[in-house]
Automatic annotation (TrEMBL):
<dbReference type="InterPro" id="IPR051795">
    <property type="entry name" value="Glycosyl_Hydrlase_43"/>
</dbReference>
<dbReference type="Pfam" id="PF04616">
    <property type="entry name" value="Glyco_hydro_43"/>
</dbReference>
<dbReference type="Pfam" id="PF17851">
    <property type="entry name" value="GH43_C2"/>
</dbReference>
<protein>
    <submittedName>
        <fullName>Glycoside hydrolase 43 family protein</fullName>
    </submittedName>
</protein>
<feature type="domain" description="Beta-xylosidase C-terminal Concanavalin A-like">
    <location>
        <begin position="314"/>
        <end position="507"/>
    </location>
</feature>
<dbReference type="InterPro" id="IPR041542">
    <property type="entry name" value="GH43_C2"/>
</dbReference>
<comment type="similarity">
    <text>Belongs to the glycosyl hydrolase 43 family.</text>
</comment>
<dbReference type="InterPro" id="IPR006710">
    <property type="entry name" value="Glyco_hydro_43"/>
</dbReference>
<keyword id="KW-0326">Glycosidase</keyword>
<dbReference type="InterPro" id="IPR023296">
    <property type="entry name" value="Glyco_hydro_beta-prop_sf"/>
</dbReference>
<dbReference type="GO" id="GO:0016787">
    <property type="term" value="F:hydrolase activity"/>
</dbReference>
<dbReference type="InterPro" id="IPR013320">
    <property type="entry name" value="ConA-like_dom_sf"/>
</dbReference>
<keyword id="KW-0378">Hydrolase</keyword>
Length: 514
């Protein structure tokens, strides 16, 4: 028999007709996946973005579509609001745990920004509403599990601990905390960069399996699995996968009984990208990979959903009953909802200024979507006729080392400008500009981790001109997120102006070649 790997000699479907790894070539880290019948649901991390903790849906494990978020607002404080010079880049909500138990969906996460553990519950994962449960402290990289009428939470790094939660999810039961595994990093030895973390626990054939990521010094990100007969332990561990740095995640089965590990890889500036790895059970352990390797193809339907399921173009036209913003959009930090609209000028996104900001990364209401690999471009058409002196508006690629192609208004007129983060010299190039409309484009090349961005403008939408210099994109831990396209408008001198975006177009092609 073929077994769970499904790599039989009679399998003749061409590689173009089956799924490819990576599963999604975009920033979708810290996945947690469950299956309900023939439908899969996946949560992920988007940290400082709002709304947060995206929920994606699939019926084949490879084609995913955003269907919901767990919250609109994680917390209302200066850091999450970009107020008073505060920010929470690289923090916000981290790795979530998605579960289903007795008719209820549970989505838990934690946040240094709030200092709390957050648990969101709903009976309808696609439509909500979500009920919010919050308590201190913030349990790092935790996993939820229901067993024998009890609710457990396992968390930690290196030393993994367990607590039992109260039935109403208002906190932990007193005197239930105990060390579950003293040194979960032990299977890779004592010389490591990253202690075992990212816990996800599963039950199979009466045994419990705890997945973690760890990183040996001089090696790569590694999957470690511990096994026990009881959820409370004792646990024995082993290395489960060490290939291409693909690690951190858990297990999922199909209705036909096939098994996969869902994991992700740090892939440079595009972010942390998901992989599926075939799994089979041998001697009571999950064995991951094909001869211990991450395969390039999978015997699953071809993955074709990143556009429009995960990212999507938008002409900002809305029919009655449509949401103001499709789920592909997220705000950088909490937005001010009084300062944006798709109704004031139908068919346009209006971004208004309401305060003075002197730095792009502190500006309110930057609206974002993921970039995607191996290449992608974002294009906007922008009406700048109502900008005030000191205003900056346009298109960006957002990370700590950001890049901008935009328009800035001055007392003596407007100019198109290209800018990088201050570490690379700030404004690189300018061009006088006297029209009311302009077209702006950024192309991103992530092939072989080239990680370069190119900036263009057009006065008619037909002829494109490159401006400024190439941005060497870099995934940095202070932002801890893959690059995102961002639509922005902020006032450096006088609030009250606005710009109108006619459309945003995202494509998985670029004209620039290596």
């Amino acid at each position: 028999m073929c077994g769970a790997f499904l790599y039989c000699s009679f399998f003749t479907v061409s590689a173009q007709e089956v799924a490819q790894n990576p599963l999604i070539h975009a920033d979708v880290p810290d996945m947690s996946i469950i299956r309900r019948g023939d439908t899969y649901y996946m949560s992920s991390t988007t940290m400082h973005m709002s709304p947060g903790v995206p929920i994606m849906k699939s019926t084949d494990l490879t084609n995913w579509k955003l269907v919901n978020y767990a919250y609109d607002t994680l917390v209302d404080n200066d850091a999450m609001n970009l107020d008073n010079g505060e920010q929470t880049y690289g923090r916000g909500s981290w790795a979530s745990s998605l579960r289903y138990h007795e008719g209820m969906y549970y989505l838990s996460t934690f946040a240094a920004t709030s200092g709390m553990t957050h648990i969101y519950t709903t009976k309808d994962i696609e439509n909500g509403p979500w009920e919010v449960h919050e308590f201190k402290p913030a349990y790092h990289d935790h996993t939820l599990f229901f067993e024998d009428g009890k609710i457990y939470m396992i968390w930690g790094a290196g030393e993994l601990s367990m607590v039992e939660l109260k039935e109403d999810l208002s906190g932990v039961k007193e005197e239930t905390k105990h060390v579950l595994i003293k040194n979960a990093t032990d299977p890779i030895g004592s010389n490591y960069i990253l202690p075992a973390e990212g816990s996800q626990v599963f039950k199979h054939d009466g045994k419990f399996y705890l997945f973690n990521i760890t990183w040996p010094r001089g090696g790569m990100r590694t999957v470690v699995v511990h096994r026990a007969d009881q959820i409370t332990g004792p646990y024995e561990g082993r290395v489960a996968l060490q290939d291409k740095g693909v690690a951190q995640g858990g297990l999922i089965d199909t209705p036909d009984g096939d098994w996969y590990a869902y994991l992700f890889q740090d892939s440079g500036a595009v972010g942390r990208i998901p992989y599926l790895v075939p799994a089979e059970w041998k001697d009571g352990w999950p064995v991951l990979g094909v001869d211990g390797k991450v395969p390039e193809t999978l015997n699953l339907p071809k993955n074709e959903s990143i556009i429009p399921g995960i990212v999507h173009s938008d002409d900002f036209s809305r029919e009655k009953g449509d949401p103001a913003l499709p789920l592909v959009w997220q705000w950088n930090h909490n937005p001010n909802n009084d300062l944006w609209s798709v109704e004031e000028r139908p068919g346009f996104l209006r971004l208004k200024t309401g305060r003075i900001d002197t730095a792009f990364i502190q500006a309110k209401n930057t609206l974002t979507q993921r970039t995607l690999g191996p290449v992608s471009s974002g294009t906007v058409k922008l009406d700048v006729s109502q900008m005030k002196a000191g205003d900056h508006a346009g298109l960006s690629v957002l990370q700590k080392k950001y890049g901008i192609i935009g328009v800035r208004s001055k007392a003596d007129g407007k100019e198109i400008y290209m800018s990088k983060n201050a570490e690379d010299g700030g404004v690189i190039a300018t061009l006088p500009f006297n029209q009311n409309e302009v077209f702006l484009k950024i192309e991103c090349d992530f092939r072989d981790r080239t990680d370069k961005a190119y900036f263009y403008y057009s006065l008619d939408g037909q002829t494109w001109n490159e401006l400024g210099s190439v941005l060497q994109m870099q995934y940095t831990l202070p932002h801890f997120m893959g690059y995102r396209f961002g639509l922005f408008n902020y006032a450096a001198e006088t609030p009250g102006g606005w710009v109108d975006f006619d459309y945003f177009e995202i494509e998985d092609t670029i004209k620039h070649s290596q």
